[in-house]
């Protein structure tokens, strides 16, 4: 038995490097990953505006993933665009790294901080923490002030900035766990964790994509999916301007 | 001076009767109302799925309203679809009846209940109450179990059901203010208020559209609009599949 | 139709300049303002002690306002002295700028700060925020350390101090909306808003008197008054030492 | 050494029987009790309106108590009228049974309910619980629907009603401690506690006056009084219409 | 690579049947389970008293598990006895089903209920929910009134009682996810889930042991363990009366 | 009548000097104090690990205290180890200075800070504040970075450090009451209070042992003990490895 997990990048910029963040998991665990982006939507997700334009595509892609036999869907963005809508549309688990990472962090210590890209996404993540029920353990949200699409061109500066903000989160905000707050931060969690440890600040660093993939497997292994009472299928009704795959959820 | 308020019904079903809910306000106040629906989207809003399909159209319509000189936009749905995204896109105030009605209710008593259409929207409204910061005063959300598009065909049953749930909200949940929880409940607030009063339960009944229109005027009269720190304009980036009016917010 | 709003300054110091803060509203809106102070009470409101001495006079003045045909009463102090007692006594809406400004601020952004006169009033305002149900969105309360009766003699210093504290509220406390925290700060909100904007901190600044006046009109326009379940009329009983107008609320 | 505790009944109805509720404490503890009522104020306290008319008298009486050498003041009403104002005025501890009883109850179990006179005071007590910081442990507030001044004429009915509501609080609201919610319930706590125990519901019943008297002694014995940072003396300023003893607090 | 997970039953009653609850996981996942009980402690865990007597043994057994090469430890009790102490003692992840199940439940819906053995453990679980940061999503805790050691003799009655309380949790408390609230409920989750679904109440039922085992694998797969800032090793100091394995955590 | 209060130091290091902290209370109040330590347990309490090893001994010692006729038990540690377990075991009140001090502090001002020994105990105390229901009034927990057993050798440094952190708690964290956060801080509260007052920061300083002793007397004088619904006696069952006095609680 092998679980098929669909990674769904909720924008239109090609990001083949994403699967590398999950590298090796399929070697030791009974899982295969597939990866898609959106046909329609914004080039990256950094605002409620971007979320709004990404969500219809996320719903469509979740329906396609289910139709193609995926066992679970991961939305590849800390803002979890379209999360509840996709859960209403399909029977399989749909996970967002925002939710899964914050719950994982909550289980690893007393208080966690999220280190993310831009100050402007902090209220969005904080509101999500309220809805997900983990706000009580959220110490702070800190930003390094780099837009998503400029991450890869500034890797050294980003390593320094992440370390700097994580350090402040631990020292000033009393966080004892760090969540990397953007799924565009690739290949950085281990090094950040090591750097913090070498400074005497041994906080775990939650890698959002990898942690969310493992959480998806945890739900699948435990035979769990999202509550159909919480996320009932949408009522059948005319829709104009969006051509979505059929909803078969009952 | 006359304020121009745009009422934006966030779905594709024609609803000309909506403006009647605001009738008379323009006779005594310096305001004119215009009304549009969406070109693309669902036929009604009853789920996160519907919200996701409505939000892009709401953003587009808010941009159009601003371009056409509107002074404020009201999204005609208690679920406030696209609210934050629209606020990021335009400079003028954008109000949602979910937010405005719950804040009005919070100012009118110690504890309010929302009486709405279907149980399935209760968690959506409750999550909004958390984000809007009024959850502390939310006594309960009760539903009458009638879909939006069947409201007009069941008016007598709806009057009875609203009264019944409002009564329970006051007696059992200790609410002292009632919010009508769907902007499709037209012309019902006054009668409900009178019925409650005649039963010795003198709770104000917040009519969401009318109250939101007055809140829009209140902001305009006080020279206020939404915070551009809270709702900064979206960063310029490629968007595929949606043709939106230009964002001119700086 | 014209609404008559009574502005009630809850102390014994003559403050004719207060109505200037509402100047112009009556030109564009169907409203007239009248203004009274107290016959008995303290010279200003800066403590729970002052509140206690102001509240009986506020109740009496609210009863007089209703008897004289006012459609709504505004208590001219951020501490909202006598607010609940006055609501129990009369049928017309009674608004406090503390409550109305904080709810307006909550609707304008994600998180607001109040900038007020003295540190000693901060716990009073914070407790009010808890009762009003908006504490979740209150980022901070900051004070400029100037007593009420010295505001007018220190206008330049006050402008600088307000700007300084507002800037810190935005930068350090992550507020995105500012509430002017004393109704004695006259004619300052527009300039403060402009100064913040010129510094790249475009937070709306809530002028408490003007905003509360517009909120009163919003309630009147929506046909709403305070819940008689939340604020039932006081039971008839002997009262010694206070001669109040008759309570006619049923 | 003997502590002198002043019991201050915050209304104008003579209540000599109050001291009987403290009978015996002065036999075993180094304490004497004195008792005063108000010269001006309402006949009983059942509303925010009554609170407002009682508070100035409470402040005056607290100042007199301090001038006469009292070591602590207890305000004889669960609504704690004038509590913060009196604390600002004097150096000695001022206790309210609402606050002291709810904190005692919070220390005796996981969750407490208050059983009081009238539904209308429930929101007042609930708001106080929020401000006192004990709302998290407040299971419910239940009322027996008898006004203060009719308590003594209905003693049998009141015993039955208190037992009935306490039983519901334990069974339905999951309270494990009961607070008698009116200081006019005299001589009833022991019997209520016994009745509950005989029904297999062994919840402690907090007698508000007796418990508050012991809390006053606890503070005095520990050398503690209220924070002068939290309750700074009122700023000197003209007061019209109230003749208060001099404030000597520095 | 195979992960070794130690199941630690925190009492002295032999419970070989526990591993059957995890049956099959080791067939599809790279995991082996070992199982131990305590040498010293109570016969079952149903109170804070039992917790106190179990915790030293849990710490010792966690140290032994780490010394014997286990990759993670699961404490086999919803009360999570000794959880924080064990985390301080070892480097490997230590999971409690109380914490892991409640976080899993929080991710599966809007609001969950725990159905457990005895009313007396409800406050313990509720306090844990507060500390774990998930109280916001806890709808209720319901009990079937059967002690742990009588579960196996009453299986039919227990199935009925669990279904009855789960149904009430969904209908009355508005839960949309059910957590089985005792790790002594063996082999019941699937049937309960099916029964609820057949009644039109499709709530996921979280099997605490199986879900916690998968959460342990999720942390191991993501390379995460508990924060050493949150759970620093105990300071070396004399201990009398307990002979514990050496703490090697640095 | 004289109350007998047992002070129970929950570790194995002899601490005869503890009773000096209560000196004089027995001269003015009808109380005698006895003092015991543990036969088995750690040398001091600074972690969850230490708590776990102390709790069984606390339960045993509480049972012994009750058998020997004590009227109340005080656990001599801010971490309140074994508190709930001991309450389940005995009928007499069992108090912890963590709980009693924080409730006393909550009654003395708007917001309190705890100044304690090591940063590592801060999350433990914060979690207790959540469970005790006083988290809303907890401004901060600050540590002076000195282990318990080194307090007496560093008295001058500790005085300075306590004053420094208390000052910061008042100025930066807006505390208006200070709680000494370790019962090993002996003879320091009065001086700290005086020092703060001389700096213009007149915050009361809660001496945990003395305050808890007075709270015990307050409960005894009011005829109150802990709720037997909240803390029911443990169910009879085999216990291996601990020899406890018999539980006679019914």
The total strand number of chain A stands at: 10
Q: Helix and strand succession of chain A? A: EHEEHEHEHEHEHEHEHE
- Major sheet of chain A, described briefly? 4 strands, parallel
Low-confidence stretches of chain A: none
Number of domains of chain A: 2
Q: Estimate the global geometry of chain A from the Cα principal axes.
A: globular
Structural class by secondary-structure content of chain A: alpha/beta
CATH class of the largest domain in chain A: Alpha Beta
**CATH architecture group name of the largest domain in chain A:** 3-Layer(aba) Sandwich
Radius of gyration of chain A: 18 Å
- Spatial gap, N to C terminus of chain A: 26 Å
CATH fold description of the largest domain in chain A: Rossmann fold
Could you tell me the mean pLDDT of chain A?
96
Biggest interface, chains and residues, is:
A-E, 52 and 52 residues
**Spatial strand order of the main sheet of chain A:** 2-1-4-5
